[in-house]
Amino acid sequence: MFSRLLRRTLISTRNFSTSKHHNYKVAIAGAAGGIGQPLSLLLKQSPLITELSLYDIVHTPGVAADLSHIETTAKIAGFMGPENLKQALKGADLIVVAAGLPRKPGMDRDDLFKSNACVVREIAEVTAESAPKALLAIITNPINSVVAIAAEVLKKAGKYDPKRLFGVSTLDVVRANTFVAELKGLCPLEVNVPVIGGHAGATIIPLISQATPAVTFPPDQLQALIRRIQDAGTEVVKAKAGAGSATLSTAYAAARMAISLVRGLNGEQNIVECAYVESSVTEAKYFSTPLLLGKNGIEKNLGLGRLSDFEQDMVKKAIPVLQKNIKTGEDFVINN
Ligand SMILES: NC(=O)C1=CN([C@@H]2O[C@H](COP(=O)(O)OP(=O)(O)OC[C@H]3O[C@@H](n4cnc5c(N)ncnc54)[C@H](O)[C@@H]3O)[C@@H](O)[C@H]2O)C=CC1
Ligand SMILES: O=C([O-])CC(=O)C(=O)O
């Protein structure tokens, strides 16, 4: 599991002269959770990160003490409770948010809005105050709506920079790569499938026509593959049978995204990841597409590329769903 991440991070340190920073502070909110703990462990492996700040409302002293014994450079600090949130985020270059409830069987991601909207609002408010220049990467569901909450909160505080706010949809790319590799007998590390749109059901749009290496499937197999990628979160929720949703694969995916963001900050070239961001690529105000990352977050939105008719149809159908999800997030900030 570590190989891809380690390879990425090791490559990035080897490629750099001493004039580059290598001293980034990353804060994780929800660090004691099912995603937060393995994510913290993975980020503790990165030589680019010199400070890891672990925030949660429970258990962070224990998680921090445990991780702090690992023989890598990142210094670990644990912060527990809202009174310590400001200090936890202070001066962070990147804040990753994995705080909030996960799904149980029978729930949609939208069912989490009620409980998680306040969590994201609180963290965005303190980000505006404590680390206004930080990149903010949100894992918490429902991504399609809560990214809009963070944007509105940052706007209210006069600190919003659309280049610095990300909904983490990397897990959809990771799953698409894995499933395509399985079907075609390829090494998953060599496969790249862009996944655009949002992060729920039919808004998850894998672009199999843009996969590298190029792959083709008969129509029924293509439909089944796309459906599996779209329903993969539910597949895990069902298998965990009430014990939560995907945590380990999410931690892997979020660590991949976090390390890519830090590599971008560090001036590395050609770092591309898909993420759910403010966008003018479609009529949906937020939309995931491949992004070129850099010193200020998003360097360039690489857009949709060339879509098959089938993919165009999926985009058309996803837009009204995303617009509704986004409005839910925006209305929450207006009305509360
Ligand atoms: N974007 C993605 O690809 C994915 C997103 N998720 C989402 O990630 C979130 C976290 O999932 P898990 O780690 O499995 O849940 P979990 O319940 O295991 O952990 C959540 C953590 O957040 C903490 N927390 C709750 N309220 C908080 C607050 N106000 N401030 C700081 N910490 C707070 C809890 O104490 C807990 O430690 C969920 O909303 C889930 O739906 C899950 C899988 C994939
Ligand atoms: O399905 C869920 O609730 C968690 C999630 O976002 C995923 O696994 O993609």
TrEMBL record:
GO terms for molecular function: L-malate dehydrogenase (NAD+) activity. GO terms for biological process: carboxylic acid metabolic process; tricarboxylic acid cycle. The keyword NAD applies. It comes from the Eukaryota. Residues 170-332 form the Lactate/malate dehydrogenase C-terminal domain. Substrate binds at residues 103, 109, 141, 175. One of its GO terms (cellular component) is mitochondrion. The active site is at residue 199. Pfam families: Ldh_1_C (PF02866), Ldh_1_N (PF00056). Keywords: NAD, Oxidoreductase, Tricarboxylic acid cycle. It is an enzyme of class 1 (oxidoreductase). NAD(+) binds at residues 30-36, 56, 116, 139-141. It catalyses: (S)-malate + NAD(+) = oxaloacetate + NADH + H(+). Residues 25-167 form the Lactate/malate dehydrogenase N-terminal domain. Its EC number is 1.1.1.37. Belongs to the LDH/MDH superfamily. MDH type 1 family. Homodimer. This is Malate dehydrogenase, mitochondrial. It comes from Zophobas morio.
